[in-house]
Amino acid sequence: MMEITLDLGKMAEMRPVNTLVFHPGKCINCGMCLQVCPHRVFAQGERRVRMARADECMECGACQRNCPAGAIEVDSGVGCAAAMIKAALKGSKEVTCGDDCCR
Ligand code: SF4
Ligand code: SF4
User: Fold this and answer.
1) Rounded to the nearest whole angstrom, what is the distance from the C-alpha of residue 83 to the centroid of ligand 2?
2) What pLDDT digit, counting tens, does each position of 23-40 carry?
3) Residue 64 CA: which ligand 1 atom is closest?
4) Is the pLDDT of residue 8 over 70?
5) pLDDT (tens digit per residue) in 50-77
6) Domain hosting residue 28, numbered range
7) Is residue 7 part of a domain?
8) Which of 12, 30, 83, 95 is deepest in the core (most CB within 10 A)?
């Protein structure tokens, strides 16, 4: 009988850390995601942008909202925790990452 061993640490490493999905085939290389992402997840590639720091995505949703080509999907239901805390402290209903966000 074959024995199967589960390495839970390895499984945790393989689990996606966020819901960000990039569809390079749809990208028209407009550069909006480079401008709006507060965590510099995207970087300029040769013919289109590329995901350079996917693990840094905090699911704020700015890239998806601003991508004119529908090339980015992210579940931004929770959003960036730092931006939410800042908005709560300021009493603001609008939760957005700004220049002073957690880069
Ligand atoms: S969801 Fe926000 S943090 Fe994540 S890649 Fe898009 S703009 Fe950057
Ligand atoms: S915003 Fe969308 S279309 Fe524009 S560069 Fe980024 S992924 Fe490509």
Assistant:
1) 23
2) 999 999 999 999 999 999
3) 6
4) no
5) 999 999 999 999 999 999 999 999 998 6
6) 16-90
7) no
8) 83
Which ligand minimizes its atom distance to the CA of 28? Answer: 2
> Measuring from atom 8 of ligand 2, which residue has the nearest CA?
27
Q: Is 28 in the pocket of ligand 2 (CB under 6 A)?
A: yes
Q: State the sign of the Cα–Cα–Cα–Cα dihedral 30, 74, 103, 16.
A: negative
Q: How many domains are contained in the chain?
A: 1
* In-domain check, residue 31: yes
DSSP H or E stretch at residue 63: helix 62-66
Q: CATH number of the domain at 65, please.
A: 3.30.70.20
87 has pLDDT over 60: yes
| Atom from ligand 1 closest to the CA of residue 60 | 2
In a domain, 8, yes or no: no
Nearest-5° angle of CA 23, CA 25, CA 31? 75
Q: Is 97 inside a domain boundary?
A: no
pTM attached to this predicted model = 0.70
Residue list, ligand 1 pocket, CB within 6 Å: 20, 36-39, 41, 57-63, 74
